[in-house]
Design goal:
The protein is built from one helix and eight strands. β7 and β8 form a beta hairpin. It has a domain of about 90 residues: OB fold (Dihydrolipoamide Acetyltransferase, E2P), CATH 2.40.50. Strands 1-3-6-8-7 form a five-stranded mixed β-barrel. Strands 4-5 form a two-stranded antiparallel sheet. By secondary structure, it is mostly beta strands.
């Protein structure tokens, strides 16, 4: 038996990173996935003929070097493909109420749209400079 999750969606906000006392980098992202809304086997449409969609939000946690890469290159709205596993948590809050949570622990993250360019020491402020000019293909 395996616990495998694959999600393709859009980032709902810029990634947030923190460092644990032990030095582990933890990056959190919110990923939105959408699917068509159906009724009686037919996709529902709005007044303009566009398909209605249901959106679900997923909390994704990315560790260490992969988390740093996500933090450096991802911004709100980017399309990502996340492969990982589901992790459930249970805790008791200060009021004594049992709470439950679910998150995806990412093992790989693929960029499906262009990320923000990395900040380099050789960056130019030239408004005519296009980063695509440096790509050899």
């Amino acid at each position: 038996m395996q616990n495998i999750v694959i999600l393709a969606g859009n980032l709902g906000a810029d990634p947030e990173s923190r460092l644990t006392q032990g030095g582990t980098n933890i990056t959190s992202i919110r990923l939105a996935t959408s699917r068509p809304r159906y009724k009686d086997g037919q996709a529902l449409r709005d007044e303009q003929g566009r398909r209605l969609q249901d959106t679900e939000w997923h909390r994704v946690t990315v560790f260490n070097g992969l988390g740093k890469t996500v933090q450096e290159h991802c911004t709100k709205g980017m399309k990502l493909l996340v492969r990982g596993r589901i992790h459930y948590t249970k805790w008791t809050d200060q009021g004594g109420v049992e709470r439950y949570g679910c998150e995806i622990i990412a093992e790989t993250v693929d960029f499906l749209s262009r990320g923000k360019p990395a900040q380099t020491s050789g960056a130019t402020d030239d408004p005519d400079y296009d980063i695509d000019d440096d790509i050899p293909f």
